[in-house]
Amino acid sequence: MTRKTLPLAVCTLLGMAIAAGSGCTSLGPQPGFLVYPIPVSPLWQKTPEDKKHIHERYDRTPVLPPIPPGGPTIAIDEPSDDEVMRALEEIDPVQGGFPLLHEEQRNNVRIVKEKMADFIDPPRVYPLIGPAQVHHVRWKCTVYYTRVTRPGWPIPQHHVDESEEVIYIDHTHLHMVGNVDEAASPSPPPPGAM
């Protein structure tokens, strides 16, 4: 061996021994470059989280107890501000701008909610639910806000626009019909049957 390769070989063996004894190794297949973390845009991370959030909170149809005869109809609460802003973001997105090139914001947001329709369909039988009625509640949500747009290239500018958007949100849910506790409480036997 030459004078340069001997110290290099010794240093390499010493480095491998230190790495093997320090716990910096892994067992099993070595995927190579796939081991290193790959940066992901925050927008790409947020999109699946938003889909999961919407599915958990707003995409399901709840089944409520029966409506008492002659009593008031029990409806789901009015749409939350979060639900209205997510619906507005689907229609007119402002997320995902490029910093210093093009940015958009919504400031001074005010939401007005009005109930437009509230009606109940006749009872029918639904699979896995049984007899139920569909309760339709339609809301008109007007969103007033200040839209701030900052295009930063080629000439930095600043646009302020007073905007108004109208969003219609339907809250549809089911009400059970009849005696829901029929299976839990059996009917008493007719008189004289004993």
- Rg over CA atoms, rounded to whole Å, is 31 Å
Low-confidence stretches: none
Sheet-strand content, in percent, reads: 25-35%
- Please summarize the sheet with the most strands: 5 strands, mixed
Basic shape: flat
| Distance, first to last CA | 108 Å
What's the mean pLDDT score? Answer: 84
Structural class: alpha+beta
Summarize the entry for a quick read.
The protein is of the alpha+beta class and 194 residues long. Helices cover 23% and strands 33% of the residues.
Descriptive keywords:
flat, five-stranded mixed β-sheet, alpha+beta, 194 residues
SSE diagram, text form:
Layout: H1 5-21, H2 42-57, E1 63-64, H3 81-91, E2 102-120, E3 124-126, E4 130-151, E5 159-176
Report on the architecture of this protein.
The protein has helices at residues 5-21, 42-57, 81-91, and strands spanning 63-64, 102-120, 124-126, 130-151, 159-176. The chain is α+β, with helices and mostly antiparallel strands. It has a domain at 50-176. Strands 1, 2, 3, 4 and 5 form a five-stranded mixed beta sheet that branches. The longest helix has 17 residues, at 5-21. The chain is flat and about 110 Å long. The mean pLDDT is 84.
